[in-house]
Design brief:
With 285 residues, the chain is α/β, with parallel strands linked by helices. Strands 1-2-3-5-4-6-7-8-9 form a nine-stranded mixed sheet, sandwiched between helices. It is globular, with a radius of gyration of 17 Å.
Length: 285
């Protein structure tokens, strides 16, 4: 494990407590953590074509009461981008679990944004003893909820894409056209390969084709919070109601926000999340 302290890449210029590169058999993954080590662990998982940096605005709101751990999934951010390794959701979940194991985390609330919520679900299926509760932020419950956007596919022959191509590709990730996408998120897309971009997105689709998330989550029996920006332009926000089929699930709709409330309004997103974790998080021994 390679460890660096105070890496300004991690937290929007605010130094992270610790960042690490974890060598795995199928590709190194980048992990960072902030907050007190004896506080309850909170694992944050980013969505497709993103990275740990998508959580930058949220982290300062969470570290007062949590040990916040973030991971760049394989193919994203500072993690390796091999062309000959699996990007299937169960494999991404397994790597995230390895990161928690190596940090000595025995219990964590796992939070996923967008397709990161699908990875979070896969992690809870694999390691139910590790995951105490789940929070999904603008994670579509099934493919039926997907809103097909106007074509913004990026031609592999034009890789890496231009800023304009990336903005067009990412535009539906926010509540309104013209939203200023943070430049570091453009860098996250540009830093991927065309293979990792398309393969990771297809992996999410394949996982949802096998079984809808509410069915998977009902079988798990874990406490569940669903946060959904009502102006989501990728997934029908009304589909958040599908999660009410999960016994005890709490669903919070955020008016005026789109697919990325963690960036559009971090305080409003953090409020229900912190209320939820105050009940379900487990402090380290």
């Amino acid at each position: 494990m390679t460890v660096s302290h105070g890496d300004p890449y991690v937290n929007g210029g605010v130094e992270a407590t610790e960042s690490s590169t974890l060598p795995l058999d199928d590709g190194d993954i980048y992990v960072c953590q902030d907050g007190p080590r004896d506080a309850p662990a909170l694992l944050l998982i980013h969505g497709s074509a993103s990275s740990t940096r998508s959580w930058n605005p949220m982290v300062p709101l969470l570290t007062g009461s949590h040990r916040v751990i973030r991971v760049d999934l394989l193919g994203h951010g500072r993690s390796a981008k091999p062309a000959d390794r699996s990007y299937a959701l169960p494999d991404q979940a397994r790597r995230a679990a390895v990161a928690l194991d190596r940090f000595g985390v025995e219990h964590a609330v796992v939070v996923g944004h967008s397709s990161g919520g699908v990875v979070a679900t896969a992690l809870a299926e694999q390691r139910p003893g590790l995951v105490t509760a789940l929070a999904l932020i603008n994670t579509g419950p099934s493919l039926d909820a997907f809103i097909t956007p106007q074509s913004a596919a990026i031609d592999p022959s034009q890789w890496p894409p231009t800023d304009e191509q990336i903005r067009r590709f990412a535009s539906t990730g926010f509540s309104r056209a013209g939203y200023r996408i943070p430049p570091e998120l453009l860098d996250d897309v540009r830093g991927m390969t065309h293979h990792t971009l398309t393969t990771t997105m297809q992996a999410t689709r394949s996982y949802l084709e096998q079984q809808a998330l509410p069915d998977r989550l009902t079988a798990l029996g874990k406490p569940l919070l669903v946060i959904f920006g009502e102006e989501d332009r990728r997934w029908r926000s009304s589909s958040a109601a599908d999660y009410r089929a999960v016994p005890g699930a709490k669903v919070e709709l955020l008016p005026g926000l789109g697919h990325s409330p963690i960036l559009e309004d971090p305080p409003r997103t953090a409020t229900p999340l912190l209320t939820f974790t105050a009940i379900h998080a487990v402090r380290a021994d």
